[in-house]
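User: Design a sequence. Structure:
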């Protein structure tokens, strides 16, 4: 199994005025669109405990995350024994139980409880309502215990970030885990600055939106002085109808034709709103995913459009790598392995920097097949071994890794 080294994230490259607007929208609204009346956070040092069966990879990933939170976000956060009461409980339970409770979530975080039993008992009342919190004292993150190591790590980063800070996701964001497009899964420099601002002395639980807004300019100037030198490029709010169409298009339970219509509708809405950013790109990407099996030519065109938009923005290199995965498979199946190698070489560095082992493994497996097609067998074997190491972290079970590698091996034309 291969893992990524712990890296300090690059600082965000956006204006402080834009950071302030994003901060307010992240903190004063839930994903449902419901407004939150007050800013909340933990007041004082934060403790974390883990309950349930863990793995060596989860233990290492949690240690690495807590180290980063202390170093990059300046948060006083420490691990305590499972038997000790803690500010944040991380409970590991079977994924089936999670899906039965919240079918659309791979993992989630709730306030005021410290166990799965307490969560189930509190579901019928308003005890789990974030809007009723005066401050954060106890929250629990529920993680699946029977998924790939990368899936656990991704859940850990996103849900710990929400336990500590924002409860909302914004599709307009590019370099953040606070975005439901699921391209970015590890806390970024943007996320760390948001969390550092969250626990700055200028703010406190109970503040209203106007109070926080009044303090953010000076606060961000102190924490991120370079942000005062960058010109504002704030993006408009995301149309709720677009979000609904995207969710319908990517729903795994829906029929094919309504999903295609929803994806096309998302493209129309994005264009109508004048978006030329990651939201338009994601609309094309979603359409490509939906029609891939039934209409490969239409899927290819959609991926090309998405790739051009993502490729034009340095902050969406990782997004472009996801598109490149699809394009590489097309190149290999079309009998042009040279193009497949070129695509992987161009986009694998973004997958590494984004610490996405499943994406990197898939790209490298495709490159190995392309090299084999070109008669470069020694290079192919070396790349394949590296890919399988990342695949063990990205996909988990050895049988799943083997099946994935076998599927990729069938792509080149016979």
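Assistant: Done.
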């Amino acid at each position: 199994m291969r893992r990524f080294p712990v890296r300090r994230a690059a600082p965000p490259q956006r204006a402080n005025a834009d950071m302030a607007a994003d901060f307010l929208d992240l903190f004063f609204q839930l994903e449902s669109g419901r407004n939150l009346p007050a800013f909340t956070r933990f007041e004082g040092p934060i403790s974390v405990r883990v309950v349930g069966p863990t793995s060596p990879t989860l233990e290492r990933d949690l240690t690495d995350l807590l180290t980063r939170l202390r170093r990059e976000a300046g948060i006083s956060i420490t691990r305590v024994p499972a038997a000790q009461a803690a500010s944040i409980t991380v409970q590991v339970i079977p994924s089936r139980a999670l899906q039965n409770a919240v079918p659309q979530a791979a993992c989630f975080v709730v306030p005021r409880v410290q166990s799965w039993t307490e969560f189930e008992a509190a579901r019928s009342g308003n005890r789990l309502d974030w809007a009723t919190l005066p401050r954060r004292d106890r929250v629990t993150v529920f993680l699946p215990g029977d998924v790939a190591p990368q899936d656990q790590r991704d859940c850990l980063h996103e849900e710990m970030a929400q336990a500590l800070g924002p409860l909302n996701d914004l599709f307009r964001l590019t370099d953040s885990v606070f975005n439901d497009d699921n391209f970015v899964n590890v806390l970024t420099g943007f996320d760390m600055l948001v969390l550092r601002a969250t626990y700055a002395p200028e703010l406190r639980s109970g503040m209203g939106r106007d109070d926080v807004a009044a303090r953010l300019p000076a606060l961000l100037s102190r924490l991120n002085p370079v942000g005062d030198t960058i010109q504002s490029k704030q993006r408009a709010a995301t149309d709720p109808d677009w979000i609904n169409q995207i969710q319908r298009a990517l729903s795994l339970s829906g029929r094919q034709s309504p999903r295609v219509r929803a994806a096309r509708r998302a493209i129309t809405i994005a264009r109508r709103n004048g978006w030329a950013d990651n939201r338009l790109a994601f609309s094309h990407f979603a359409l490509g995913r939906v029609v891939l099996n039934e209409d490969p030519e239409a899927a290819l065109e959609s991926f090309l459009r998405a790739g051009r938009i993502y490729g034009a923005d340095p902050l969406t290199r990782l997004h472009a790598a996801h598109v490149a995965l699809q394009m590489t498979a097309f190149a290999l199946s079309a009998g042009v392995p040279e193009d497949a190698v070129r695509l992987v070489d161009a986009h694998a560095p973004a997958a590494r920097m984004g610490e996405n082992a499943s994406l990197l493994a898939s790209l490298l497996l495709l490159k190995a097949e392309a090299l084999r097609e070109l008669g470069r067998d020694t290079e192919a074997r070396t790349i394949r071994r590296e890919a399988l190491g990342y695949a063990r972290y990205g996909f988990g079970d050895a049988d799943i890794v083997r099946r994935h590698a076998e599927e990729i091996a069938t792509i080149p034309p016979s």
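The chain is about 55% helix and 5% strand. The longest helix spans residues 377-395.
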